[in-house]
Design a protein that fits this description.
By secondary structure, the protein is α/β, with parallel strands linked by helices. It has one domain: Rossmann fold. 34% of the residues lie in helices and 27% in strands. The protein has 6 helices and 10 strands. Helix 6 links the parallel strand 7 and strand 8. Helix 3 packs across helix 4, helix 3 runs parallel beside helix 5 and helix 5 packs parallel to helix 6. The mean pLDDT is 91.
């Protein structure tokens, strides 16, 4: 599903990622741990085609993506990659249901179909009671769960979660991890999650540490 080969990323004279390689198969749940500023978000942005590496090769779904143009990358992101951001990125003027519908609208899905698919997601994960509410009325944990459902609307097989628990308390962090674990198992999705918590217990089967630009295998805490 995801293959990075000899990835380097520099900003001017500053090298953020150095000779980094990673393979994640379908159904893998991968954690990448590291302190703030070490390049975890940059790595996810490269995997998610929001940035290009300075050197190295990126393959998604078995195909080389380095040579894709912006339109091709945008289409692949929209239809095949789900993003979960640290600060939710929900649109405050839209209801929960409308926020979940948004990727479908961008993909050209007609309103009745996208409403049904968004409603089905809310019902499946027992969150239908939130459908008509606006993001500002939700707790942090509720917002992050809605952000996860929005990432699922186009049924992506790759989900990238950038420090999704960093602004949540322990109880909501546990609920969020249960939800991601459920998605990983039931949808056979490949999930890559970053965290600054070096000792957090996660339901992952691959664990890495990003330090000084290098990705190293790590033992599960």
């Amino acid at each position: 599903m995801i293959q990075l080969e000899n990835i380097w990323k520099s900003y001017g004279a500053s090298e953020i990622l150095k000779q980094l390689s990673l393979v994640a198969k379908q159904g893998d749940f991968v954690s990448i741990r590291g302190k703030s500023g070490v390049g975890k978000s940059t790595l996810l942005r490269i995997i998610g085609l929001l940035e290009s590496p300075s050197k190295g090769e990126v393959k998604l779904y078995g195909k080389r993506v380095n040579g894709l143009n912006d339109q091709q990358k945008s289409s692949l992101r929209l239809h095949s990659i789900g993003f979960i951001f640290q600060f939710f990125n929900l649109i405050p003027s839209l209801t929960v249901l409308e926020n979940i519908e948004l990727p479908l609208a961008l993909a050209g899905v007609k309103k009745p179909e996208r409403k049904k698919r968004a409603s089905d997601l809310l019902h499946y994960f027992d969150l239908s009671s939130l459908a008509s509410r606006f993001p500002t009325s939700l707790s942090g944990g509720e917002r992050q769960r809605i952000a996860i459902l929005r990432a699922l609307t186009n049924n992506p097989k790759i989900i990238l979660a950038d420090e999704p628990t960093s602004s949540l308390d322990d109880e909501n962090s546990d609920l969020l991890m249960e939800l991601l674990s459920q998605i990983n198992k039931e949808r056979n999705a490949t999930i890559i999650l970053t965290t600054t918590d070096l000792y957090e217990e996660l339901p992952t089967n691959q664990n890495y540490m990003l330090k000084e630009g290098h990705l190293q295998k790590a033992n599960k805490p």
